[in-house]
């Protein structure tokens, strides 16, 4: 099943790491550590093989992909040997990257995006193309009448209104082009009622939001533990220090607020209340593409005895996120091939703020994900045997 993976923000750190990783896996130069879909519980014939993935994307910047990969290698994100071993493969992907549509109306830019996606699919004889948003976090969308339904959206776009935030404009174009959409950011994406209705009308599956790669991943394990032991969590405070482009983006208060809201949801919905404290995100340029999170949890046990727990998470966000991007592309492609449409709620395992998820417990989400994968494999697809 030849599958296109179209990355919005294709020259960013997460996308570049995903591209180098996919090329290295395809060439047999690395193993699939971090790729959830290569675990025995998920792997199977419904998923496109790494050799079947064809990569492309949009970005507003023009730095050559090879230069971005070299910079990430110098920063310790990528092994330099892989970048040195893949010059021809990186050059081939470079030829599939397009400048983000600019100028004109949003309707004009959406039309360019649709054309780029359909040309990409046709040029490579792809069965389908999955669009994955890995661009910078944007502020929460301001309400607009055009968000209400497809007819209102069509009228607003025809009138030249700037009705959609960037992530939603890409989601709209993806649906128009018949492409499944994955939002790896906390941006609005496909969550607007007009786009939800349009995706249902066109039979397009989609997934999101905000990839779960660090502190929130730990929260989704620890919060259910406190709840199941009937321990009273009194406060949960976290400090996140980020470098790189993501940190710089989140220095903007509006983008920061959108990210914090996504990160906090797991606690309120798992514990049944939102404990005192909050999450603070700060930009520390010297950290580069790495991040550190420190959390302090205070809780009470039997007879009200007060206790506390602390943990520190230090990781490379791009290296944690990139395999999940590939996992999501493979699973969403398989879901599309199997006829799924609408929100893929069983992919909640991958997200901080998952669509329609009944649980934020990582263990419960894992069970749902395994069941989803088993159903995909049992149903059969047009994928070639491995």
From TrEMBL:
InterPro entries: Myo-inos-1-P_Synthase, Myo-inos-1-P_Synthase_GAPDH, NAD(P)-bd_dom_sf. One of its GO terms (biological process) is phospholipid biosynthetic process. Residues 214-318 form the Myo-inositol-1-phosphate synthase GAPDH-like domain. Gene3D superfamilies: Dihydrodipicolinate Reductase, domain 2, NAD(P)-binding Rossmann-like Domain. Belongs to the myo-inositol 1-phosphate synthase family. PANTHER family: MYO-INOSITOL-1 PHOSPHATE SYNTHASE. This is Myo-inositol-1-phosphate synthase. It comes from Micromonospora citrea. The lineage of its organism: Bacteria, Bacillati, Actinomycetota, Actinomycetes, Micromonosporales.
């Amino acid at each position: 099943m030849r599958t296109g993976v179209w990355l919005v923000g294709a020259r960013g750190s997460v996308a570049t790491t995903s591209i180098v990783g996919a090329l290295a896996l395809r060439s047999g130069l690395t193993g699939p550590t971090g790729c959830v879909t290569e675990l025995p519980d998920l792997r199977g014939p419904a998923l496109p093989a790494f050799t079947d993935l064809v990569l492309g994307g949009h970005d507003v910047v023009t730095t050559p992909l090879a230069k971005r990969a070299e910079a990430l290698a110098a920063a310790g994100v990528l092994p330099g040997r892989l970048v040195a071993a893949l010059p021809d493969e990186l050059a081939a992907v470079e030829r599939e990257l397009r400048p983000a549509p600019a100028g004109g109306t949003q309707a004009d830019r959406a039309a360019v995006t649709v054309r780029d996606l359909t040309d990409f699919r046709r040029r490579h004889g792809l069965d389908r193309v999955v669009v994955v948003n890995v661009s910078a976090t944007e502020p929460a969308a301001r309400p607009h009448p055009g968000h209400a339904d497809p007819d209102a959206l069509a009228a607003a776009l025809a009138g030249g209104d700037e009705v959609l935030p960037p992530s939603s404009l890409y989601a709209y174009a993806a649906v128009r082009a018949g492409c499944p959409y994955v939002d790896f950011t906390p941006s609005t994406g496909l969550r607007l009622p007009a786009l939800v209705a349009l995706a249902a009308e066109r039979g397009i599956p989609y997934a999101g939001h905000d990839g779960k790669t660090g502190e929130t991943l730990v929260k989704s394990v620890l919060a259910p533990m406190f709840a199941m032991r009937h321990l009273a969590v009194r406060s949960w405070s976290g400090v996140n220090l980020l470098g790189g482009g993501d940190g710089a983006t989140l220095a903007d208060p509006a983008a920061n607020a959108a990210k914090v809201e996504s990160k906090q949801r797991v606690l309120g919905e798992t514990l049944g209340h939102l404990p005192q404290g909050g999450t603070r995100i700060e930009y520390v340029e010297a950290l580069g593409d790495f991040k550190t999170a420190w959390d302090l949890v205070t809780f009470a046990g039997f007879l009200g005895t007060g206790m506390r727990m602390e943990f520190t998470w230090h990781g490379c966000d791009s290296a944690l996120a990139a395999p999940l991007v590939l996992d999501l592309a493979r699973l969403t492609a398989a879901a599309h091939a199997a006829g799924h449409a609408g929100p893929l709620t069983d992919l909640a395992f991958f997200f901080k703020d998952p669509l329609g998820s009944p649980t934020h417990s990582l263990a419960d989400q894992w069970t749902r994900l395994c069941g989803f994968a088993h159903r995909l494999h049992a149903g059969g697809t047009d994928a070639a045997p491995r």
